[in-house]
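Please produce the structure of this protein holding protoporphyrin IX containing FE.
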Amino acid sequence: MELISPTVIIILGFLALLLFFQRKNLRGPPCIRGWIPWIGAGFEFGKAPLEFIEKARIKYGPVFTVFVMGTRMTFVTEEEGINVFLKSKEVNFELAVQKPVYRTASIPKNTFLTLHEKLNVTIKGKIGTVNLYQFTGQLTEELHEQLEKLGTHGTMELSNFVRHLLYPVSVNILFQKGLFPTNERKIREFHQHFQAYDEGFEYGSQMPECLLSHWSKSKKWLLALFEKNIPDIKTYRSAKDNSVVTFWTLGFVLSHPSVHKTIVEGISSVFGTAGKDKIKVSEDDLKKLPLIRWCILETLRLRAPGIITRKVMKPVQILNYTVPSGDLLMLSPFWLHRNPKYFPEPEVFKPERWKKANLEKNAFLDGFMAFGSGKYQCPGRWFALLQIQICIILILYKYDCSLLDPLPKQSSLHLVGVQQPEGQCHIEFKQRK
Ligand code: HEM
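Below is the modeled complex.
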């Protein structure tokens, strides 16, 4: 006698399959949560976050969640996840950055959410591609002023060298002329506070201020200076990104003799060989020196920000996983730039790969995400490239430069912003004759 009819077996089988697929679809990505409640994988993650992400990708696959300090961060590393990150209506930029903005700039949630869109549009208008070249004159003037202070020759730590050139220029141009202090004591104070603020930025964006009194003091000092001039917290922190990118670009150029030689020959052919003149740099001159721009972009590719982030507002499907609402979705430009599918020989500094990019039409190479992407892509990107380009031209026009130390490795401690050097590197500069 038959115990169960074939029809019932088929129906039961069908139901089991349905349940299987439903469960599969509802399953979250593999989650690394460590063994300590709330802190989760915090200790392991904090030791070397960039390496942690890459090891987790190899072990768990292209989508995985890391639970740290009460927060679920879901990393996407391949096409499908990246598309969700960039295009889904269910993920939100403002809510992902609101808390760090509050912690680092004391801008309350409601004020930020009300003003953010307007500020974004204002910044794009002010320093987007349409008005960009109106800054070349002022940038050149301000940089000449700072270069003058370096004298005819010297030796300096490379980070200090670029910081002393670029901080005053950024502050005076992006905020208002004269805002950067002019007397020695105040300048020293500015550098001290900016450095303390910057070094604590990553902790400061994640922890209550009362736990970081030294950092909090520097934050207040800077906020008081910028009080009436803050278009966005990112704008003044970006002075740091610009100077770090200039550090690495000069470092890469000076440690690749044939690139260095071609750049100096290019500069001499456009501006002449003498290093003494206060040259003016026009839009046309910049177009004649594409290799410098390629070097900056290649540097940005290799030293890109560790992460950019969005908040999941409604559950989203990525591969076979459902990422729940409330998760922070994380994308690492740094690791994306090491995918050989987009960038063959990804670890090699190859400025010529940028020949293929349609920079005339303001397009980068596919897979390049140092400035983020989509609606909230960095509105300061063209200004940043212009400033660094002019800075490198003026330095290499005025001085014969060489590195006295090997270029340091990048530090493995930072996720936010561009990668910082692990150690020091000295530059020697002598005025060209
Ligand atoms: C080389 C230097 C720079 C790098 C690598 C950089 C990178 C970035 C990245 C990755 C983002 C997030 C984008 C996203 O989540 O999709 C961003 C946002 C932003 N950047 Fe930059 N940036 C740089 C320079 C600048 C400069 C010079 C300015 C201003 C003058 C600036 C202003 C901003 C602002 C205001 C935002 C936030 C956009 C918003 O809130 O809508 N950045 N930047």
